[in-house]
Design brief:
The complex is a heterodimer of chains A (258) and B (462). The two termini of chain A are 13 Å apart. By secondary structure, chain A is α/β, with parallel strands linked by helices. With 462 residues, chain B is mostly helical. Chain B has one domain. Chain B has a two-stranded antiparallel ribbon. In chain B, helix 7 packs antiparallel against helix 8 and helix 9 crosses helix 19. The chains are: A alpha/beta (258), B mainly alpha (462). Chains A and B meet through helix 3, strand 6, helix 5, helix 7 and helix 8 of A and helix 1, helix 2, strand 1, helix 5 and helix 6 of B. Strand 6 of chain A pairs antiparallel with strand 1 of chain B, so a sheet runs across the interface.
Chain lengths: 258, 462
């Protein structure tokens, strides 16, 4: 068989302490701090990681598994961040994981009671990967505060599945698992409507993308990498260089085998 | 030669030379998208409930009321713990020591050798019984209440109140949160210091985390405050006085935390405090059943198991030390009397200091070890209530309120437990900082105890 997708480490999952057992899909939980990510993590995995009502509770990345329809899923609880523009260690961890470990699905946990601020994070994750599900958590609290959210319309506008949940009461968890399953098996194909920037920036993105593709392939989102390069995100450079080296080896081995 | 990736970066710089403009543009576009989507898909009927939450915040975090409310809450929690733990504590003690008598009878009936009975029953079992009866009730009351406050969303308000003090001390406001974690367990508090990004401020938070009493040390404070400080006044106000003592010690610990943070930021860890945004999360109705179950399972049982696992062998070792003779004194007594002159200067005695040293693996076992060492030195066989404990300490070993106070202060300020030290070493990978984490609180403890002792004796208060 020679070099396979995983043995070259191109997914870099080893770097994140994720050992890939056969075809166990990886699900990442991202989102703003204090949106109930850890509670959702517990609801999904049945683990009893301590949750608390204050931002920054999860400093360690926790992992757990659940079984749905006889299939086993690995869930990774990423640190809570307000954005992915990498101003802090947590943001870097979360971003690198979504970008390089390439989880099969990234669930962005959103606090339904302050959706606007949380959507910033959703929009940024959508730029990295199209396999995104929005989990409108704390929907019970939103109802109590008389906030109504048109989830259908939100889903259409974003171009990705939106599932309302109240993780504390296990409400909507089943549906979230079901949607995750459908997305992985290809029954749902999200088509994220990405943020449009002004003409000058869009032109620059297009130009850069044409240079990135030959170098890195289309394993990663070229649009997002172009944006980060334009933003002079130097922290991403070394990670990208690492990825580039591995990509080159893989390409060469493909040629040899052909 | 620059890598192809670097060349891409240069390319990007060429096409958009103004970096700030790019960043502004990106952020603005994302924010306005989020705003648009929200206004198209969300309908808010009334805004009253958010106002309600804000009104509470204005009181809880007000410059005038914030602190008194915080202190009042802290004191109430301690009061409930102390007043509520008394009865179950003595019931547990009675029950467990009744079992000890039966165990002794079994050993007698089996004609087991005396040393085996001594080691297992007087050594291992008795320390276990003490750990359970002294520590279980306060923990089973304190942790659920504390977890309720945490789930309610009160901790970030505490952090908000404390923020300006930590800023003034040259430390990070988030240290208030890591400090709160330390109330549960200092090792957990050290790990939570990762939320502080600046390495300088993180080190300050790590080095001072030990100044708040953890699970393992609260029971010492509560037991001693109940027996000595509360016990020396009229019964009607005794639990209130004991409560105020514990609350006072915690406030003292926080003051020391701030003072040492300030000292560190002026000397070893110079720098300007970085600012951060602290989000005040909404108040959430805690799931009371879940909180009680989780805090009892996760915290109480965890601490108790840890204490028992370490206390059982430690009890055995203490028994061996107390029964191994060197000349005409036991090994334990010899060691204690060697430490005694120094311990006396700090208002304690050699046995107390020995217990703190032997308690390095876990603070939970300091008190059981102490009791063990006293018992093995005396001919006392029965120890079945808090009253008996008081008798053992006061009449047989000459404790005064000053001894109790100095022991409590030293429990608050001494080297961190083994687990915490291991965590610090793992987080910082530096023997230097681990050493400082031992030296700083120990020095503070020694100096404070000596001052208290000198003042009390100088003014003839004892």
């Amino acid at each position: 068989m020679g070099l396979t997708y995983q043995s070259t480490g191109i997914t870099s999952r080893e770097n994140f302490n994720i050992t890939c057992i056969s075809n166990e899909p990886v699900i990442a939980l991202a989102g703003n701090p204090n949106t109930g990510k850890s509670t959702l993590f517990n609801a999904l995995t049945g683990l009893r990681q301590h949750t608390g009502n204050w931002p920054g509770k999860t400093v360690l990345q926790s992992k757990g598994t659940y079984i749905y329809n006889t299939r086993k899923y690995l869930v990774v609880d990423l640190p809570g961040t307000y954005s992915l523009l990498a101003n802090s260690v947590e943001e870097e961890v979360a971003r690198d994981f979504i970008c390089f470990a390439k989880p099969e699905v990234t669930i962005v946990v959103v606090d339904s009671t302050c959706m606007e601020r949380n959507l910033n994070m959703v929009l940024q994750v959508m730029e990295i990967t199209s396999n995104v599900i929005v989990c409108l958590n704390l929907i019970d609290e939103a109802r109590r505060k008389k906030i109504q959210i048109d989830t259908e319309k939100l889903s259409r506008t974003l171009g990705i599945p939106v599932i309302p949940t109240a993780a504390r009461n296990k409400e909507g968890i089943e549906e979230l698992m079901n949607t995750t399953n459908k997305l992985i098996s290809g029954q749902i194909k999200p088509r994220p409507n990405l943020v449009k920037y002004d003409k000058k920036l869009e032109d620059a993105i297009l130009h850069l993308e044409s240079k990135i593709k030959p170098l890195l392939g289309d394993e990663l989102s070229t649009r997002w990498i172009a944006l980060r390069l334009l933003d002079r995100d130097t922290k991403l450079i070394s990670a990208l260089e690492d990825f580039y080296d591995k990509h080159k080896i893989l390409e060469m081995s493909k040629e040899v085998m052909a | 030669m620059s890598s192809p990736i670097r060349q891409l970066l240069d390319e990007a710089a060429k096409s958009c030379p103004n970096q700030n403009e790019v960043r502004d543009n990106i952020v603005k576009s994302i924010y306005s998208s989020a705003e648009n989507i929200t206004s198209n898909t969300q309908y808010v009927e009334d805004k009253k409930s958010t106002d309600w939450s804000r009104k509470i915040d204005n009181i809880l975090t007000s410059p005038i009321w914030g602190f008194p409310i915080m202190l009042a809450l802290l004191t109430t929690v301690f009061w409930i713990t102390i007043a509520g733990a008394n009865v179950p504590s003595s019931m547990l003690a009675t029950g467990l020591f009744w079992i000890e008598d039966r165990l002794t009878e079994v050993f007698m009936a089996l004609n087991a050798p005396g040393w085996l009975r001594g080691f297992l029953v007087t050594g291992v079992y008795r320390s276990l019984a003490w750990v359970v009866s002294v520590m279980l009730p306060p923990m089973a009351i304190f942790f659920p209440i504390f977890t309720l406050l945490e789930d309610l969303g009160y901790l970030p308000r505490v952090a908000f109140n404390m923020d300006r003090f930590f800023k003034k001390a040259g430390a990070h406001g988030k240290q208030a949160l890591t400090m709160s974690m330390g109330f549960g367990c200092n090792a957990a508090g050290i790990i939570s210091c990762r939320i502080i990004e600046s390495p300088r401020e993180r080190l300050i938070a790590i080095l001072t985390n030990n100044f708040v009493p953890c699970n393992g040390r609260f029971p010492i404070l509560i037991a001693l405050a109940t027996i000595f400080i509360g016990g020396s006044v009229a019964a009607s106000i005794s639990s209130i006085i004991a409560t105020l003592t514990v609350a006072g010690l915690v406030v003292f610990g926080i003051t020391i935390t701030l003072f040492i943070s300030w000292l560190l930021s002026k000397t070893l860890l110079k720098g300007v405090p970085s600012s951060f945004t602290l989000e005040l999360p909404p108040y959430r109705k805690p799931k009371i059943g879940e909180v009680i179950v989780r805090s009892i399972l996760d915290r109480t049982i965890f601490v108790l198991t840890r204490a028992m696992i370490i206390a059982a062998p430690a009890g055995g070792i203490v028994w061996i030390m107390a029964n191994t003779m060197v000349g005409d004194t036991s090994l334990l007594a010899a060691f204690a009397s060697w430490l005694n002159p120094f311990a006396q200067l700090m208002g304690m005695d050699g046995f107390i200091l020995t217990a703190f040293i032997l308690g390095l693996p876990a603070n939970e076992i300091v008190f059981p070890i102490l009791i063990m060492s006293y018992i093995s030195g005396s001919g006392m066989l029965e120890l079945s209530s808090l009253e008996a404990l008081r008798h053992l300490l006061v009449d047989e070993n000459g404790w005064t309120w000053l001894t109790a106070l100095c022991t409590m202060v030293f429990a608050l300020c001494h080297w961190p437990c083994g687990t915490t030290l291991y965590t610090i070493q793992k987080e910082q990978h530096s023997w230097y900082w681990t050493f400082l984490a031992i030296a700083i609180p120990t020095a503070v403890g020694i100096v404070t105890c000596m001052i208290i002792n000198l003042l009390a004796k100088g003014f003839g208060l004892v």
